From TrEMBL:
This is 2-keto-4-methylthiobutyrate aminotransferase. Its cofactor is pyridoxal 5'-phosphate. One of its GO terms (molecular function) is pyridoxal phosphate binding. Residues 28-374 form the Aminotransferase class I/classII large domain. Pfam families: Aminotran_1_2. PANTHER family: FI04487P. Keywords: Aminotransferase, Pyridoxal phosphate, Transferase. GO terms for cellular component: cytoplasm. It comes from Algoriphagus antarcticus.
Amino acid sequence: MSISSKLPQVGTTIFTTMSKLASDCGAINLSQGFPGFDCDPVLVDLVTKHMKAGLNQYAPMSGVPILREQIAVKTKLVYGVDLNSETEVTVVSGATEAIYAAVTAVVKQGDEVILFDPAYDCYAPAIELNGGVPVFVPLELPDFSVNWENVKSSISDKTRLIMINTPHNPSGYVWTQEDLDTLAELIQDRDILIVSDEVYEHITFDGREHLSLLTHPILRERTFVCGSFGKTFHVTGWKIGYCLAPLKLTEEFRKIHQFLTFSTATPLQYALADYLSEPFRYLTLPDFYQKKRDLFCDGLKNTPFKFTPAQGSFFQMVSYAHLSQESDYDLAVRLTKEIGVASIPISVFFSDKKDHKILRFCFAKDDPDLMKALGKLQNIKL
Ligand code: PMP
Ligand code: GLN
């Protein structure tokens, strides 16, 4: 029997590869993006409480009402935007599901989808599996900002969707009001929808504000905003997130969601609903992560790398282009094996796998681990 792959170019993700290598080598794992510390024990107690109370059967397809309401309350508090929790909020099994369901809901055979290059790894496969055609618009190095002239010239009559990600993985670039306004201007008279991946919405630095696409009246009517509790509450292993979209888009989104996963773990939903009732739990996140970013960047000053502190997300990119021609993949593997610090080579995020000699480090780790990694990085030979 022969199988014709639907994704012939796709192998195992770099996150799995580097995390395994880190584990095999006993290295400090600053590669895959997940916190190296545990979540608040209060959250674990809440899940236990709801499990013990017997909330262990299927949740409603769109999410338990109290969690959808709490998500709407958070959205009002943080962005000043009113959402109808019945018709505009859907709880899903992680942002990955939200992204896949949103793309599947609207992309048909031959539709063009604009995405920025580099992009998070699940976007292009979602487009291709739905018969869509990814159209890559390169971001402008070194800050990974958007070149709007390039976006404009990439829009065609076939463009159905634009996929954005702010704060951006891997660069940390945070969209500005001008970015939002320019996007709105470009698409307002066209039949183009948006998927906005905002999983790092609560992780921005130096007083920068995350501008959700929900805050823009023109963009809001045509956007699926995808969020993740994994990032916000240090529970990436729970795989729980949400999709915020206007009624008509939510209707189509739920048609896909109900056949992908149908619903998301019930006790987790009740626990998160309780936990969200205290806004300080997400409002203090920028400060929490800024301390880690600053600690990491301070230490990086004693290494040969060049860098600009990240604007958002829990990733810091570093360049070694001025020192060596070694490929970023080879260097990431070598650093893991030889000095015991794992990172991600960012060439994997580019559609053409172009090597800009940049590595990505995740600083969502305990301070002693960050210090230890920095100590090792000071001694590297490039
Ligand atoms: N989008 C981006 C930009 C990410 O970095 C990640 C990784 N966690 C996801 C989506 C997936 O989020 P989740 O784990 O909630 O599926
Ligand atoms: N988002 C995480 C990262 O960028 C990885 C999540 C995953 O492994 N799927 O590192």
